[in-house]
Design goal:
alpha/beta, Elongation Factor Tu (Ef-tu), domain 3, Rossmann fold, 6-stranded antiparallel β-barrel, binds FE2/S2 (inorganic) cluster
């Protein structure tokens, strides 16, 4: 990783510098990669200076909090939506597209932690909403918590291409969300509308079997259409919108295969919109430590996808096309 200029999602946050700085593995700061001179592209407060002022140590680490389950809604056979009471500070920190938390049943050990996108936040009440699709041991335990839930956060790298998402204003945007990919899409829609953008939302129930973000976006000024993105007709409609509507930004919430299809369609367009997608890497610790999210970028360098804002196109094409 040395010598590369990568964008760490945590740079400049209250959790920076982190464990990686202590191990000379900082994603952004060349000093904290063990080099003699400054060679970073970070424009915020100097990470090395923060490290020295903290006594040559990392800053505080993210905490785990007990979260009260205010409401649990069964969306379909395999999907549950939780409304959770957390601290107001945590709710505020999570009020951003791409935010997620680790959750587990309070009775289970920490290796049951599973990352979940935050789909709605009520900062005043200190509440968040998350959708959970039951798939394995961790999510099964979480869907039926015996004595409450523990939440760890905030984390922010649930979406790749956040720079574009935060930069586009008064534009024309298309949001495509399938299955559990609807969860991060809800905050994306709200964020784009806040930026004065015109937003069309295409939503496919997918394996969840239901559209569960309807209540969150029904009062927003956007056009919502339900389609089966696995059908010829559904694909045709998406392709038509991409071709005819001159988008500044397209968001894809779903599988890497879905992302790749959209990238390929965008490649056929004369005016290419920015692409923003859900981060589908396997995230386990969220801190850049365990390596489960490691992914290769061009030239074969391995980076931690839980921390780095990766180039959407390169990473998706590399992962799908090279297997
Ligand atoms: S999830 Fe552990 S290093 Fe990224």
């Amino acid at each position: 990783m040395i010598g590369r200029k990568l964008e760490c999602i945590d740079a400049g946050s209250e959790y920076c510098p982190c464990f990686l700085a202590e191990a000379n593995e900082c994603i952004t700061c060349s000093h904290l990669q063990g080099r003699e001179f400054c060679d970073c592209n970070w424009r915020g407060v100097c990470i090395y200076q923060e490290y020295v002022w903290a006594g040559n140590r990392k800053k505080e680490v993210r905490s785990s909090y007990p979260a009260t389950v205010m409401e649990k809604r069964d969306i379909s056979q395999n999907t549950v939506v939780f409304r959770l009471k957390v601290t107001k500070t945590l709710a505020r920190q999570l009020d951003s597209p791409g935010a997620y938390v680790f959750m587990r049943d309070k009775e289970k050990p920490s290796f049951f932690d599973v990352p979940m996108s935050v789909m709605a936040v009520d900062v005043a009440k200190g509440e968040i909403q998350v959708a959970l699709q039951v798939q394995g041991a961790k999510t099964k335990a979480l869907a039926e918590p015996e004595k409450g839930i523990v939440v760890r956060g905030p984390y922010w790298n649930g979406i790749l291409g956040q720079r574009y998402l935060k930069g586009v204003k008064n534009g024309n945007c298309l949001v495509i969300a399938r299955g559990i990919g609807q969860a991060p899409a809800a905050k994306v829609v709200a964020y784009l509308i806040r930026g004065g953008n015109k937003v069309r939302v295409i939503v496919d129930p997918g394996k969840v079997g239901a559209v569960f973000i309807g209540d969150l976006i029904k009062d927003l000024p956007c056009e919502v259409e339900e389609l089966d993105l696995n059908s010829r007709q559904g694909i045709k409609v998406v392709n038509r919108y991409l071709k005819n509507e001159n988008h500044e930004l397209v968001f894809s919430g779903g599988s890497d295969k879905q992302h790749l299809h959209i990238i390929k369609e965008i490649d056929k367009l004369a005016q290419k919109p920015f692409i923003v997608v859900t981060n589908n890497n396997e995230i386990c610790c969220g801190e850049g430590i365990c390596g489960s999210c490691s992914t290769r970028i061009d030239s074969g360098v391995r980076v931690k996808a839980c921390k780095v804002q990766l180039d959407v196109r390169r990473v998706i094409e590399r992962r799908i096309l090279n297997g």
